[in-house]
Amino acid sequence: MSPEPAMDGVGLLVAAGLFAYLLGSIPFGLIVTRAGGAGDIRTIGSGNIGATNVLRTGRRGLAAATLLLDGLKGFFAVVLCAVLLPLLLPEVAAVAAVCAVIGHCFPVWLRFRGGKGVATALGVALALDWRVGACCCLIWLLVARLTRISSAGALAAMAALGPLLLVFDGGRLGSPIPWAGFAVGIGVILRHHANIARLRAGTEPRIGSGSVSRSA
Hints:
The chain is mostly helical. The protein has helices spanning 4-24, 28-35, 51-55, 60-84, 89-105, 118-128, 130-147, 150-168, 176-191, 193-201.
């Protein structure tokens, strides 16, 4: 049996991963704040390029734009790969999902110092299964509203991502989609190690307390 089909499959997965990584690595937080006259977001607050740190500029419109664009790049990284490389649809979608979030968290353009991946992960979730994405967004909003802690909502949503994909995928452990969800969720949670430490210590800032949680 010729190994060429397998090699072609590997090549497609590598191409999908590279494309998704590069799309995910676009630092919209930095681009939006500079274009909006707010300066270099890396010199503000936590230095993070995510929407939550953009909010520290006091420009809610810029923060909303960053949140939307970071979500859209995750969504389109998966969708475009699935459309352009349909022969390995589940595998391509899974690889693209993981690599898009990696790109956001570790962008080559910024010496691998990126955001924490929440918005991009939610965009990825919506692309993998819109029902799961909607549930994760709802969990984020509800937990953040109940606790008044943004990072708590983000962590709850990411913890639910893998299990929800597994349920909606019919409980098929052999499918790559749920495993991509678990990888993305765990990765984003690990990026929140400082938030988790503050949550355990009871020192994580609350929404409306005059400071913003460093969750995005």
